[in-house]
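Assess this today:

___
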Amino acid sequence: AGIVQKENRKGQPMHLNNVQTNSLCILTTRTPYSTEEDRFIFAVFLIDQTYNGDDQDEGFVSTKSKYKLKLTPEQAHQMPFWRYHANENRPEVAFWGTGLYRYLTDNQAAQILRDIVRLKHGAEDEALAQEFFETFCAITNVNAENLKEPNGALCQ
């Protein structure tokens, strides 16, 4: 989860909240000199181990699951993070701020996996992407048939 870099808690370990086994971890980045609106998803995995952290150690997530997908650079640039996520206070603004991570709902995570399945059509890992999506929906009780389109900051 990292170490706090500023203010009163500087140097203290960061804690994770509401992260549990079978949550989806979404890895994002943006290229140098790009804007926050250009942040994209480059990999996802199903979490199988978590540690929330305490006053001594930072939290972490990891996986040994078969459910992990890496996107090619071309695929990744078609997965803008802010298409799926919106900040609570200003949903129309793609703003990351100082935190290292964001929390998404199971429906937002399922939307991401569904769109990865679409991107992986014809690729070597297409079947894994489809199985990953179906497994995640079953675990989280998300109805894949009624999954809405994303409503993140880029859609506001």
Q: What stands out?
A: The helical segments are 73-76, 106-119, 126-140. The chain has three helices and five strands. The beta strands are 24-29, 40-46, 49-51, 60-62, 68-70. The CA atoms of residues 9 and 69 lie 35 Å apart.
